[in-house]
Amino acid sequence: MRRTVRRLPLAVLLLCGISVLAFGSDNQKEIERGLREAYLGHFLSLKSPSYSDHLRFRPDGASEDAIKPAPWTTFGLFQVTKLSVKKDRIEIEGDHLVIAWRAEQTPYLLPLVIGKKLKITLESYAPISDTDQTTQMFKRVFDHGNIDRRIAAYWKPDASAIAAFRKPGNTHEEYGVLEGNRKVFGVKAGIVSPPRPMYDPDPPYTDAARKDKLQGITVLRLVVNENGLPEIIEITKNLGDGLDLAALDAISQWRFQPAKMNGTPIAVLISVEVNFRLY
Hints:
By secondary structure, this protein is an alpha+beta fold. Helices cover about 20% and strands about 35% of the residues. A hairpin with a 3-residue loop joins strand 9 (about 175-180) and strand 10. The radius of gyration is 21 Å and the shape is globular. The two termini are about 25 Å apart. Residues about 1-25 have low confidence and may be disordered.
């Protein structure tokens, strides 16, 4: 069974000046109504992606808790589902998104809802009373700009190299370029050492798969970056019943000892098999 990656609506979030928040009244309910109109159903991009599912930010934009940095493609985006304005804070909830790679599809990078929730709290020094105040609160935590454009440009694979990946006789050494002009290599004995898993939690079995007694192997292709973190992930062999998404979610949290070339950490393209078995 092949899973269709659903295209979601994208929002151009110009946080440097949100014109839609110009109300006739600046009371709390009006501010909340305007923010909901502007953001519900749209995407927000975190300046500091984190593995946490509840992020709290002080008025200066700093996190209340220690943030474990994560790739933007796997932990930097969410789609807003709820938003409320309290006296001294804004509370936002949303669906966590992963940028899924599909080499045989155009566009080949698509935001995918994987079933995880994210909650974000923006705190204010003073009672929330006007739209300039909320605009500044959003600017400190979220990136502005065209999210669609960033997604499209984030990963530029070499099509011919990708087509030959893991095939006998393949001589390609580079497979593409990540945002920031970071080259992605292939593992090659004596030249590029493979990344070594240091933290590799198993994905959970879904209720639907248990009910259908579904078993098998799902295969994912991923770019493990120079910090040993999965940054681009593609499902290349599907199982269905939510197992593929469970595998993608789990692997996005894996940590590796980075691959190295001449002693220097580099980004590499690898494949991972996830075996689902009922006992």
